[in-house]
Write a structure and sequence with these properties.
By secondary structure, this protein is of the alpha/beta class. It is built from eight helices and seven strands; from the N terminus they run E-H-E-H-H-E-H-H-E-H-H-E-E-E-H. The protein has a five-stranded parallel beta sheet with strand order 2-3-1-4-5, with helices on both faces. Strands 6-7 form a two-stranded antiparallel ribbon.
Length: 223
């Protein structure tokens, strides 16, 4: 069977950059690697996710409850696995890097619920996707811990550069902050690895760590 690595964290935490760096590094060592990103916007399987994210079911993340929204994302992953990478995953020594996965529900959907319900939701989520839907469970999960005070300006800068329309998660700073807290909780509860992606500079302000420093920490976990 293959080895599945899942990356997660709030928006602008550097997941995509680090996934691509790791993919290149692994290929240089002769590994057979497949890079995935979720949601799979190129597939019809993401239609409900897009309907949710771009306001078709309400302009606030809380317009759709955590369990319903989680089901949209889970269905997208299930279809992706069944049609695109099940065969690759069955190869010996194959490595799959997933930029977001089931873990994203444990960050963005968990944050909608009262904290007294967090354990119950996380137990349901892992049972639903890995036992009921039977998609692969990650062998390694890495949370990129980027503080919201650093992530929010980066998100604004990215939006200006790309002129892309923000989704309802990206457009809601409170959701971002709540998801950050939820991600830290999920990482501890579910046993994920965590890489802190920010530091304080000489003025005491929070700033992002360099890509190189984060990559070194990541390579220590993977290579």
């Amino acid at each position: 069977m293959g080895y599945l690595i899942a990356f997660d964290g709030i928006d602008a935490s550097g997941k995509t950059t680090q996934a691509k760096i790791l993919e290149q590094k692994l290929r240089e060592t002769g590994k057979e690697v497949l890079y995935l990103t979720f949601p799979d916007y190129e597939s019809e399987s993401s239609s409900l996710v897009k309907l949710y994210l771009y306001g078709g079911l309400g302009n606030n993340p809380n317009s759709v409850n955590a369990y319903a929204a989680s089901s949209f994302y889970a269905a997208d992953r299930y279809v992706s696995y069944m049609t695109k990478w099940r065969e690759f995953y069955g190869k010996e020594n194959a490595i799959i890097i997933a930029n977001r996965y089931t873990t994203a529900n444990a960050v963005h959907q968990l944050s909608k619920l009262p904290k007294t319900e967090w354990d119950k939701f996380l137990d349901w989520l892992y049972d639903y996707e890995f036992n009921k839907l039977k998609i692969p469970k990650p062998d390694l999960t890495v949370l990129f811990d980027m503080h919201p005070d650093v992530a929010l300006p980066l998100l604004e800068e990215r939006a200006k550069k790309t002129q892309a329309t923000k989704d309802i998660h990206e457009n809601d700073p409170e959701h971002l902050r709540n998801s950050y807290e939820a991600g830290l909780y999920a990482a501890k509860y579910l046993g994920w690895e965590r890489i802190v992606c920010y530091r304080r500079n000489e003025h005491g302000n929070l700033v992002p760590k360099s890509e190189e420093e984060i990559s070194r920490n990541l390579f220590e976990l993977v290579i």
